[in-house]
Amino acid sequence: MTSYPAPINPTQTRIGWIGTGIMGGAMAARLLSAGYSVTIYARNPSKVVHLQSQGALFADSPADLARNSDVIFTMLGHPSDVRQIVLEGMISFLNPNSVIIDHTSSHPALAKKIFDAAREKNCWAVDAPVSGGDIGAREGKLAILAGGNEDVVKWLNPLFDVLGKATFVGGPGKGQSCKIANQIVVGANLMGLSEGLVFAERAGLDKRKFVEAVKGGAAGSMVMELFGERMIGRDFRPGGFTDYMVKDLGMGLDVGAEQGEDVLALPGAALNKQLFSAMVANGDGKLGTQGLITVIERINGK
């Protein structure tokens, strides 16, 4: 299967890409820089002019893109977008042996449906949400959480290696489940960092010295490395939208009920969803998740 259907090669493997926001645009650009032929579909063509200037081709529709691609990447906003564009709009137009890679943070049950629909067309689907934010996307250092068929994931490694490091985490839908678990951990880290910085300031500490002092100990984390200085410098430009964090935590809290299983008790995730939802209610849903500190500050009257 590692040679399925033929080894990936920049001069032969045709790449399709849908979803060119902060993350998707940077990821597509990396594949272009690596020499791959990339065809893009975007509802607003003006947003992909910078990628066309790097050599990207443009498709008129998802169906057109599917007909002219061997491997198709999607990086969309919500499960409803994935359902509409992938499951309802593109799968029926796939070429035999094509592979769909969905990088969207989506629902495990939907990923399974896409996998089954792809197999009916003699194709494969991989649910492969990512972690690492805008910096990881630009630098090719994303953690790629891949679910589906392990041999297909191995076959895709030449592409994944351009974007970061892929880890096969299980069958269809497991990549999405892994991303939800990832977001539960990231959200808890962001809350802890926000509260630590607010406390440090109230205690009269220099916040940068606080971060420098503790980052090598047990309090240190990748969240602190990525977002500590951004929080201190009030840089809330998004690497990932707060809207999406609310979506991801919501899926974690609801997934058991939707599958007819017992709902897990996740009190930390529930609290974090409320706090991120407060950001959205404050009109800050399009800010980066590091903006959570503003909610902690407001609670404390700042």
TrEMBL record:
Gene3D superfamilies: N-(1-d-carboxylethyl)-l-norvaline Dehydrogenase, domain 2, NAD(P)-binding Rossmann-like Domain. Keywords: NAD, Oxidoreductase. InterPro entries: 6-PGluconate_DH-like_C_sf (IPR008927), 6PGD_dom2 (IPR013328), 6PGDH_NADP-bd (IPR006115), HIBADH-like_NADP-bd (IPR029154), HIBADH-related (IPR015815), NAD(P)-bd_dom_sf (IPR036291). Residues 173-295 form the 3-hydroxyisobutyrate dehydrogenase-like NAD-binding domain. Residues 14-169 form the 6-phosphogluconate dehydrogenase NADP-binding domain. It comes from the Eukaryota. The keyword NAD applies. This is 3-hydroxyisobutyrate dehydrogenase-like 2, mitochondrial. It comes from Datura stramonium.
